[in-house]
Amino acid sequence: MRGKRTLIRRIYEQLLKAYGPQHWWPAEGEDELIIGIVLTQNAAWSNVERALSRLKEAGACDLRSALSLPDARLAELIRPAGYFNLKTRRLKAVARYFIERWDCDYASMRRADPMELREELLGVYGLGRESVDCVLLYLLGFPVFVIDAYTLRIGARHGLFAEGASYEEARRIFESALPCDAAQFNEYHALLVQVGKHQCKPKPRCEGCPLNQRRNFPDPAALPGHNQR
Fold first, then answer.
1. In this predicted model, what pLDDT tens digit does every residue of 60-91 receive, in sequence order?
2. How far apart are CA 220 and CA 228, in angstroms?
3. 98 with 34: CB under 8 angstroms?
4. What is the sign, positive or negative, of the torsion defined by CA atoms of 125, 139, 63, 112?
5. Is the pLDDT of residue 119 over 80?
6. What is the reported pTM?
7. Is residue 150 within 8 Å of 197, Cβ to Cβ?
8. At what angle do helices 167-177 and 149-157 cross, to 10 degrees?
9. Rounded-to-integer distance, Cα 66 and Cα 58, Å
10. What is the pLDDT of residues 19-61, one digit of tens each?
11. Nearest-angstrom CA–CA distance, 116 and 101
12. 64: phi then psi, degrees, rounded to nearest 5
């Protein structure tokens, strides 16, 4: 595990050097952040931004306003984010949870036990593991490492875990290798998204990738559990 811990930390350092701080999650308020978390499921962020802009223009970029809209109207506003009928149902279910369960009192949520809250959130329609951990990390500031498709792809290619590793396995590996620091988890996840979008695509673009400078890293093939590709 020591070798993986070193590799995880060096990957972070190299990405931060290459891309700089990402200032993620970009949102003007807590309600907007929650809406963005739902809309970004299976969607490019540029399309989510278009949907958020349309909600703002309609005066509906908060949970209570979004919930009060007729389904057809909400679906039309969020159309750029894709799967708009499904996301309308998900967004309303999520809005209803935060309004009815917490009265949108996010300060009270921050005083809750994070792992108990995680289990509760996983029971909300429209929130999967990645979305729940985004809520915990970005909205509430709990030190939970968010795993997404980019992270799983990059981690497998660089020997952090085997291809096909589960969400929870990958999360445990990152959390055990890093200080328990929400700010660093936030930054690291955003940096992985950046390199995943631009370099570590399904067909990798290794030339110019900040993680392709092998002298900066231990040899992944020497790490336990490395998946030869």
1. 999 999 999 999 999 999 999 999 999 999 99
2. 9
3. yes
4. positive
5. yes
6. 0.90
7. yes
8. 70
9. 10
10. 999 999 999 999 999 999 999 999 999 999 999 999 999 999 9
11. 14
12. -65, -40
The torsion angle over the Cα atoms of residues 218, 222, 225 and 229, rounded to 10 degrees, is: 90
- Interatomic CA distance for residues 131 and 147, integer angstroms: 10
- The runs of H, that is alpha helices, within the chain are 2-19, 30-39, 45-57, 63-68, 71-77, 84-102, 106-110, 114-122, 129-134, 149-157, 167-177, 182-198
Residue count of the chain, please give it: 229
The letter for the amino acid at 111 is R
Q: How far apart are CA 174 and CA 132, in angstroms?
A: 17
Six token digits for residue 61: 């970029």
Residue-wise burial string across 45-61, b where 16 or more C-beta atoms lie within 10 A, e elsewhere: bebbbbbbebbeeeebb
Report the distance separating Cα 161 and Cα 206, nearest Å: 19
Which amino acid is located at 167 in the chain?
Y
What is the widest separation between alpha-carbon atoms in the chain?
57
Could you write out the DSSP letters of every residue in 143-198? ------HHHHHHHHHTTSS-TT--HHHHHHHHHHHS-S-HHHHHHHHHHHHHHHHH
